[in-house]
């Protein structure tokens, strides 16, 4: 049938893309020094933002029941 040939052709294209993707994934991925530094700076930066937000957010008053179990 007409549709069978198209289906087979699309299957071959998809299979080739998957093989290329598998080859690329099997190679060891090496980042340059600047890329690693950028990733580290980003992590440290977001950690500092999180800490700053926690310090800047006022705490809600605790109920007496919760306060008793905190100690």
From TrEMBL:
Identification of the protein by name? Uncharacterized protein
Q: Which organism is it from?
A: Streptomyces rhizosphaericus
Highest classification ranks of the organism:
Bacteria, Bacillati, Actinomycetota, Actinomycetes, Kitasatosporales
